[in-house]
Amino acid sequence: MTDEEDTLQTSGFLTEEQARELFADMNEVILAGEEMRRLRSEMITLFAGLGWTQERIARLTGMSQPAVSKQVAKARPEGPASPPDITLDQHDTPWLEGRLWGLAEEISASLHDSAHCTRLTDALGRGRKRFTPQNVDALRRLVEKDLMERRTELPGSHRSAYDAISRGLDVPAKPAATDTAGTGSAPVRRALARRIQRDRLGDGS
Fold first, then answer.
1. Among 27, 48, 128, 204, which residue has the fewest nearby CB atoms (within 10 Å)?
2. Quick one: what percent of the chain has pLDDT higher than 70?
3. Which portions of the chain are predicted below pLDDT 70?
């Protein structure tokens, strides 16, 4: 290291490590925004392919109709699409990860954000963490810890949902099952499964 480099690192402003962390935090936010925009675009394409009007999509997304029209034209859905299979009991990994995510959010809400899984769940929802195998395993451990330590405060349906999700993640679906699991990319399937799992738990099923 040169004297000039050493001076820059210890000048009383920011060290190189501090600057690295600063930019890393910024990059995470930028990446999360880009990934969320891609997910929104895929969802718009999905709904347009199912015959939803651009006016309806614009109203639901909070976008202008010209912006929706531009997105649909860019994607060029080839005619009406078959609705994706959105039954809760599916076994491909993205779907199960989405169910786990939705379950964790319901646990966090039920425990007023004092759950062990709250921080990681929030990071996944905001895009600060990604659905890597390591993060999914960490979320499973935290959810299980909440279910064990706070079981008197949580409905039995939460434990039942976790048991089904955990069994599915422990025994990955065969490729043939994954191929027919439904339409959409992994992020789309996670988002759908998360929403359906939350709704199912919310109505007490």
1. 204
2. 83
3. 1-12, 76-85, 174-183, 204-205
Burial class (CB in 10 A: 0-12, 13-18, 19+), 150: middle
Rounded Cα–Cα distance for residues 67 and 56 (Å): 13
Residue 198 CA to residue 196 CA, distance in Å, equals 5
Question: What is the chain's mean pLDDT, rounded?
Answer: 87
The answer to whether 50 touches 61, Cβ cutoff 8 Å, is no
Identify the CA nearest to 158 among candidates 91, 109, 85, 95. 109
Which tokens belong to 183?
């339409």
SS (H, E, C) the chain: CCHHHHHHHCCCCCCHHHHHHHHHHHHHHHHHHHHHHHHHHHHHHHHHHCCCCHHHHHHHHCCCHHHHHHHHHHHCCCCCCCCCCCCCCCCCHHHHHHHHHHHHHHHHHHCCCCCCCHHHHHHHHCCCCCCCHHHHHHHHHHHHHHHHHCHHHCCHHHHHHHHHHHHHHHCCCCHHHHHCCCCCCHHHHHHHHHHHHHHHHHCCC
- pTM of the shown model: 0.80
